[in-house]
């Protein structure tokens, strides 16, 4: 049997059989068949999000020339690249599936923007149809309408990912990663409009100021807002919330996301002059950004601690050697292992990367089991990952390994 215990009994290290003999039985435990309908739906979602992005580009061409659109897109790539590098750094310990990250990026750049545009169009039609009974307000649009509509649109994308890739949505860091990708996509499309309009309607100085404000001072603004929702849904994943239960967490994270967004937009109406705006950045936005960095660093370290602790429990059961646990569960050990892999052939290098990635996934599955989420699907996933890890080890051990790898991958003898 594997580390998990029968339903109703919380698994602990001293309940584990300290012998590798159960391995074959665990390997034979079937993994639940993939839900092909869900895969098809996810593929359809990627297509829909891509079409939405094309619709955004079509909308931009209605008031931007092709040259201005291209110029805005090239400038918008600068903050987008910066944010995506940050997202990748956050995601290094337990990388999310690339299709899910692509979906998140397209959702932000396409579906979220289209949702905001459609809602704004509805507001404008309502105001026009009121024959003067209703009047639009720039303040209400920027401080009330935009934060609510945009954060709901972006946040719903995180909720969709929670439902669609629940197996890979395991905690707050995953929520931050998906939120960051969605926010980066949204800011990319929004920046194309701002940079393109600055070129069309203003001067070179206008373009410079716009790029300074949006590309240098605030590339992480949307990320700072939307990660509130990502953290809330990550907490829902950590606590084993159901799909319907996650909606409550979504609403909980939506409130501070809207609040921070409204605070950001409202400052432009309250403050006047370059000195006031700069002071706002220093007094309000810089501390918020630093706080977000500290939260992310804390969560990343927590992931590393969980990985090391849970893999140590498997080591006590005979699945890994202590040297392997050190290699798989510490940053220094991983760097040395990956450095070793760079000198090997492609298959061994890939096997090493997969060994590290699947060991991390196993640790988080184990953590969910320890927390009492003893679902049959989780137990089958644990067994499947153990099977994969033994295969990865065998691939790396195809020939004698030098140095650190030889120590870390030595076979356990009873």
TrEMBL record:
Stretches that traverse the bilayer: 39-60, 66-87, 99-119, 139-164, 176-196, 216-237, 249-272, 278-299
Source organism, top-level taxon: Bacteria
InterPro entries in the cross-refs: PrsW
One MF annotation (Gene Ontology) recorded for this entry: metallopeptidase activity
Biological process, per Gene Ontology: proteolysis
Keywords linked to the UniProt accession: Hydrolase, Membrane, Metalloprotease, Protease, Transmembrane, Transmembrane helix
Renumbered residue ranges of the record's region Disordered: 1-21
Name of this protein: PrsW family intramembrane metalloprotease
